Fold this sequence. Notes:
By secondary structure, the protein is an alpha+beta fold. The chain contains 2 helices and 11 strands, in the order βββββββαβββαβ. 16% of the residues lie in helices and 36% in strands. A hairpin with an 8-residue loop joins β5 (52-60) and β6.
Amino acid sequence: MKFCSECASPVSLKIPAGDNRPRYVCDSCAAIHYQNPKMVLGTIPVWEQDGELKVLLCKRAIEPRYGYWTLPAGFMENNETTGEAALRETREEAGANVTLGKLFTLLNVARVHQVHMFYLATLQDLDFAPGEESLDVQMFSESEIPWDDLAFPTIQTTLELFFADRVKIRKGGDYGFHTQDLTRPMRSDGETK
């Protein structure tokens, strides 16, 4: 940051009085500009028919990770709840209408200053199509998931936890709520698991 968004004067990086870390502070109006993690919200859209469960995934049409598969998700906007953001991103990326369930994963990705949250979701119908940020949208059973072509560690972790909980459900359990700190970096293109 070079200039204050309040008065357009230059800013300096310093520790403000009463704080414990460097912040951008305006040299003129003394406004403190805090930088906080971004929230990424999404869903795990599922359809179950005749005992077979499938998950809807989107193939990314944007960088980073162009051409890789992801759950529908994106950055939360101001004046949205987390649930509203998850529903909006699902409509935008997959053209899908879902009924939102409970929060399933909360994943801290501190190295990129993000928090990823995924809600369980049930597709209302099979009327879906790629949005502007998706090349393709498809349904996958667990055995069909393109594990080596998933876009981000948060997607892989969420899907692994989801299918692990499915085993519990078959034994009379329920979906849990999972939170983790993810420190592993993304695989580079061409690198396998």
